[in-house]
Design a protein that fits this description.
about 375 residues, five-stranded parallel beta sheet, 5 strands, binds adenosine-5'-diphosphate, nucleotide-binding, cytoskeleton
Length: about 375
């Protein structure tokens, strides 16, 4: 967590970095293996499961020190995200299934003309489930999941970014079959930041292109030992042609439609009690233009309102005296939602949507 914050602090300033900093904290970035979950069962602490991966497949490439640091840095818990945890996005799930999951499950079939796509790009406004989908893919495939954001590739190891990029792919091969998820891939191409940062990102980008080409090299394509590249961006227009061409499959992750919003609200409210008059359809109707992340925030806020009312004006001692079961029994009401809706507004602008749709019609896959 702290390191991610430092990174955000160092490159500094944009809202985009900040929003990703949050994601980074939740995600942590990491190497983990869902296969280990299956092997060891749920009772095994996650850290041990990850250690299991590390001791099984030992890195013996040319950058042992960097690899050890990188492994530690992007060490993560097991994603454990299932397809059903991702609301809506059925088209994106279908494409990911075919482009990423199936080639890993039946590698023998996906040879020659059926070879998997070199890289898969998910683009769309922030908070729409791109990171969540990447985790679901890794969980579904039981692959090692290496999760890194481009801002950390460029900023965190100042001066070592190219080696770091190379090392990332070496690690991915060590832990194959694996999925590399690169968030904010656009930041490699955009010109913001200082001249040295720009230079660093330019070099990382050239290295990344070399590495992506290497993924496609047949001699590296041993069935069952594949490395899949998934990338995400909120600014697809910033990708230059060289990178865009290598991200062969480009999947649009739009804002949730009515049906998906309903699904998302239901997923979010799974663990809370609802008041009799609670109308999820109405909330879904009122939240057009909200992202999945916005909706999650609304659900969280609404579900806290009952407790807020209960403790309003009370002293700490008085609060201590309220029985726990009484608090747990407070249901979430429609008014709680209306109140939350008053406070929380959509974070994605119509211009953003237009920008994505335009890019989709020009470069998107279906
Ligand atoms: P992105 O990577 O597109 O910026 P994330 O996948 O990090 O967005 O989503 C942020 C949070 O918003 C998730 O952790 C989840 O709580 C919620 N969320 C967004 N989209 C969805 C979705 N389609 N289904 C379920 N939850 C979602």
């Amino acid at each position: 967590g702290n390191t991610m914050q430092q990174v955000g602090g160092r490159i500094g300033s944009t809202a985009q970095v900040n929003s990703y900093r949050n994601t980074g904290q939740q995600v942590g970035g990491g190497i983990s293996s869902a296969a280990q979950v299956n092997n060891y069962g749920n009772t095994m602490p996650q850290v041990n499961a990850v250690e299991g991966v590390k001791s099984k497949e030992k890195y013996n490439g040319p950058h042992p020190e960097l690899a050890a640091r990188l492994e530690k840095e992007i060490l993560d818990t097991i994603p454990g995200v299932k397809w059903d945890d991702v609301a809506g996005l059925s088209e994106a799930k279908r494409i990911l299934q075919e482009a990423v999951v199936l080639p890993l499950l039946i590698p023998e079939y996906f040879q020659g003309i059926r070879r998997p796509w070199r890289g898969v790009l998910m683009f769309g406004p922030p908070g729409t489930g791109k990171t969540l989908l990447a985790k679901a893919v890794a969980t579904e495939c039981g692959t090692t999941f290496l999760n890194i954001s481009c801002s950390s590739l460029c900023a965190k190891w100042y001066g070592e970014s190219e080696r770091l990029t190379r090392c990332l792919f070496e690690l991915a091969r060590t832990h194959a079959p694996s999925t590399i998820f690169i968030d904010e891939i656009d930041s490699l191409c955009s010109a913001r930041g200082s001249a040295t940062e720009h230079e660093a990102s330019r070099r990382v980008k050239s290295e990344l292109l070399v590495q992506i080409d290497g993924l496609n090299n047949n001699s590296n394509n041993t069935p069952g030992k594949s490395v899949t590249l998934l990338a995400a961006t909120n600014f697809p227009g910033n990708l230059d042609e060289a990178l865009r061409r290598r991200l062969e499959k480009r999947i649009y992750i739009p804002l949730p439609d009515f049906k998906s919003r309903k699904e998302l609200i239901k997923i979010n409210l799974k663990s809370v009690m609802l008041a009799p008059g609670m109308d999820i359809d109405q909330v879904a109707r009122k939240t057009e233009g909200y992202s999945g992340d916005d909706l999650t925030n609304i659900c969280r806020d609404a579900s806290l309102n009952g407790m807020r009312r209960k403790i309003a004006g009370k002293t700490t001692d008085e609060i201590k005296n309220i029985s726990k079961s009484e608090i747990l029994k407070i249901p979430v009401t429609m008014d709680d939602f209306l109140e939350a809706l008053d406070k929380i507004h959509p974070t994605v602008s119509p211009e953003d949507i237009e920008r994505h749709e335009k890019w989709y019609s020009e470069f998107g896959s279906s």
